[in-house]
Amino acid sequence: MKILVINAGSSSLKYQIYDMTTEAVLAAGRVERIGMDSSILVHEPHHTDEITEVSEILDHTTAIRKVLDKLTDPQVGVVGSISEIEAVGHRVVHGGETFKSSVLVDSEVKSEIRRLFDLAPLHNPACMMGIKAAEANMPNVPQAVVFDTAFHQTMPAKAYMYAIPKVLYKKHKIRRYGFHGTSHDYVSKRAAEVVDRPLEDLKIITCHIGNGGSLTAVKGGVSVDTTMGMTPLEGLMMGTRSGDLDPAIVPFTMMKEDLTVNEVNSMLNKHSGLLAVSGISSDMREITDGMEAGEPNATLAFEMYEYRLRKYIGAYAAAMDGVDVIVFTAGVGENSAIVRKHVCDNLTFLGVEIDQELNKVRSKEPRVISTPNSRVAVLVVPTNEELMIARDTYRLAQEANANQA
Ligand code: ADP
Q1: Which atom of ligand 1 is nearest to the CA of 209?
Q2: Which atom of ligand 1 is the closest one to the Cα of 274?
Q3: Which end of the chain, N or C, is less surrounded by CB atoms within 10 Å?
Q4: Closest ligand 1 atom to Cα of 288
Q5: CA 95 centroid distance within chain
Q6: Which residues are 179's β-sheet partners?
Q7: How far apart are CA 129 and CA 382, in angstroms?
Q8: What distance in angstroms lies between residue 115's CA and the mean position of ligand 1's atoms?
Q9: Which letter does DSSP use for residue 97 in this model?
């Protein structure tokens, strides 16, 4: 069975096509600058060189049509015809409290995703464009939706409620949802396989740190707490996002600097974090280069980033009454040996001890970087959100087929 995975943004769309008999990626690619001048389609088939095409792609429906043209092309294609694609899986950022797991799309699911636009005004409308565009191009193919928030729906109320008037939860659903759920789910399962212990018995802290970042406390395979909140702004210090701060800073800054709601939102989401503190970049590579060159602002940015990350690891060890495994994943977690070193070298009170040489090894495979003596296993596990989406989509499509038979 071939499954197409789509991750739609407002002006971009990423795709991967899987053969689920082997879980092999047959092709991947992306369309950028949808609706702008000179849209770009990059198609990377597994069997030959990638191609880049520049053309006018006015909307997501045209983008998916062009992707399907490439997937069925005699030279760079990977399927004989569109009919070989048996289901499409979409990444959707916000599933609110409604979606506790992935589902097949029907009109009720689409209405609910629309009702959730309020909670994710930048993301969910783009996801919906992807769904509609796939439906327009492949009207009889089942579509599934996989939510970034779903994995965290197991959190207890003490973790997801904010200490503010309850009417705000009742009226506007203001609570912690958490994000990167597909990644936290994937790497925690993979970590249990690597340490060869039942997931049900493990207390795992998953650190998904890329441009955005979040930590999750995974106890017995379920999320019991996570650092992102109602939106992806809460928690860790990130590339351009502030993470946690005193909420009183928001009205105070708005008053002192005469900022609008949009301006203060933009300041906290796009002009804060590593970028603001370092004054150099939101990219961890440039921060560590700056630190090594003795640049004080880069050093402070790194120290704040590492300190906050480490504090949350301590907090989640307390939340779960212990920790067996710490997992690093995503752009910084998978690639930055120096971030992992600084975090782990300061966690000796938990019995963490990493092997400094293993920590420096670069690999695409999951690996243990702690010593045999370490009380906590420390792992680097490359995330694979697309594979999780493909697996859920495959399962749902098979269940639907079985019900029809
Ligand atoms: P996103 O959160 O957008 O999905 P990624 O998970 O791909 O992003 O993470 C991107 C970030 O990963 C970059 O901004 C950069 O800070 C970091 N990164 C990538 N490679 C390295 C590296 N070799 N060393 C340190 N940081 C890296």
Answers
A1: 6
A2: 16
A3: C
A4: 25
A5: 14
A6: none
A7: 29
A8: 32
A9: T
Q: Name the burial class of residue 5, with classes exposed (0-12), middle (13-18) and buried (19+) by CB atoms within 10 angstroms of its CB.
A: buried
- Report the atom number in ligand 1 closest to the C-alpha of 330: 6
Ligand 1 mutation pick, 30, 182, 211, max ligand atoms within 8 A of CB? 211
Domains 2-147 and 196-385 share a fold: yes
Cα–ligand 1 centroid distance for 330 (angstroms): 7
Structure tokens at 198: 């039942």
Q: State both tokens at 192.
A: 């249990």
pLDDT tens per residue, range 204-238:
999 999 999 999 999 999 999 999 999 999 999 99
Confidence (pLDDT) at 37:
87
Within 6 A (CB) of ligand 1 lie: 210-212, 239, 283-285, 330-332, 335-336
- What top-level class would CATH report for the domain 196-385? alpha beta
Q: What per-residue string of b and e applies to 86-95 under the rule 16 or more CB within 10 Å gives b?
A: bbbbbbbbbb
- pTM of the entire structure? 0.95
With contact defined as beta carbons under 8 Å apart, do 266 and 296 qualify? Answer: no
- DSSP labels, 302-324: HHHHHHHHHHHHHHHHHHTT--S
Contact 205, 321 (CB under 8 A): no
How many angstroms does the Cα of residue 71 sit away from the middle of ligand 1? 29
3-state SS assignment for residue 343: helix
Task: Report CA(363)–ligand 1 centroid distance (Å).
Answer: 15
Q: Single out the catalytic residue among 69, 148, 244, 258.
A: 148
What does the pLDDT look like over 56-103, one tens digit per residue? Answer: 999 999 999 999 999 999 999 999 999 999 999 999 999 999 999 999
Tens digit of each residue's pLDDT (9 = 90 or more) over 347-369:
999 999 999 999 999 999 999 99
186-205 in b/e form (b: 16+ CB < 10 A) is bbbbbbbebbeeebeebbbb
CATH 3.20.10.10 fits 2-147, yes or no: no
73 is annotated as an active-site residue: no
Which secondary-structure segment (H or E) carries 13?
Answer: strand 13-19
Element (H, E) at 63: helix 60-71
β-pairing, 222-226 vs 85-92, is unpaired
Residue 130 and residue 322: Cα distance in Å, rounded?
41
